[in-house]
Design a protein that fits this description.
8 helices; OB fold (Dihydrolipoamide Acetyltransferase, E2P); alpha/beta; Ribonucleotide Reductase Protein R1, domain 1; five-stranded mixed beta barrel; globular
């Protein structure tokens, strides 16, 4: 029988079958010797002595390392307008990472009630570039989010303290997920999520997982990065050289598009920063 893993605590797995039946399951020892099951995995299970046992992990269409989750349709990159400060560098790095594993990036900006009008420079920049941007304040959640999440597996990513668990609480108050105030001393949040889990939200499944503490580009080469910038794709085959990295090469159509205002200079500069770190094999955050 087939099912999907929706929750993992230690070595205990909660799985849901096609009829929405939930079972507590264990994994066969041979699975733990290879790629361990992760949340989002589609699996084959059977009953052994009345206990659900995961026998096989079905092929994944993608997976992330942090957060550890598989078969994701889209990533909701959550960033606060204030406390902590909005960072286009962090948003863009997350975009590059999720696009690299064929996950659609979406941007959600929380705490809009705390921001001044300067945040709209970033909002308009992302929307002009074709990215979906959802806005959230302490009282309101963009209703567009309901339709965006429907029938999809979505992972929430972003720094701690930006309000990922609070956002899930607003979408479905039954979660009553643990939230806490921003640490005044550190100026950032502390992790409140202690395990990986997929929650039923707005007709889809949403992963609430521990936040990113670092960004790892060590598995990507310069061409992986280049191909992960959605803003470049319209121009990438127009450059004079097929291996153009849009850095200093002559005849680069991406650089021309940046100069003409057709490609975001914000995204381009953030791309150059990551490109340099990959070229030097130093990953910076």
């Amino acid at each position: 029988m087939k099912a999907k893993i929706v929750k993992i605590i230690s070595n205990q797995y909660t799985i849901v079958d096609k009829d929405n039946n939930r079972y507590e399951a264990v994994a066969m020892g041979k699975l733990r010797l290879g790629d361990s099951p992760v949340v989002g995995d589609n699996v084959i299970f059977e009953f052994r002595d009345s206990k659900a046992t995961i026998e096989k992990i079905l092929p994944r269409k993608n997976h992330l390392i942090r957060p550890l989750i598989a078969n994701v349709d889209q990533a909701l990159i959550v960033m606060s307008a204030k406390n902590p400060e909005f960072s286009s560098a962090l948003v863009d790095r997350l975009i590059f990472l999720v696009v690299n594993v064929n996950i659609e990036p979406l941007i959600c900006i929380t705490k809009m009630d705390l921001s001044d009008d300067s945040i709209y420079d970033y909002i308009n920049d992302y929307r002009k570039s074709g990215y979906t941007v959802i806005l959230v304040d302490k009282d309101n959640v963009d209703h567009e989010l309901d339709e965006i999440l429907k029938d999809k597996i979505t992972v929430l990513t972003g720094q701690s303290g930006v309000g990922k668990s609070t956002l899930l609480n607003k979408l479905n108050p039954e979660f009553n997920l643990k939230t806490q105030e921003i640490s005044k001393a550190l100026g950032r949040g502390k992790h409140t999520t202690r395990h990986s889990e997929l929650h039923e939200v707005c007709g889809g499944l949403v992963g609430d997982t521990p936040g990113f503490s670092s960004l790892d580009f060590s598995h990507m080469d310069v061409y992986d990065l280049r191909n992960s910038v959605l803003d470049f794709r319209k121009y990438i085959n127009a450059c004079r050289f097929n291996d153009c990295l849009h850095q200093n090469e002559p005849g680069c159509k991406v650089k021309e598009a940046v100069d003409n205002g057709e490609v975001s200079s914000i995204r381009y500069n953030n791309y150059l920063d990551v490109l340099k770190s990959i070229q030097e094999r130093r990953v910076k955050y």
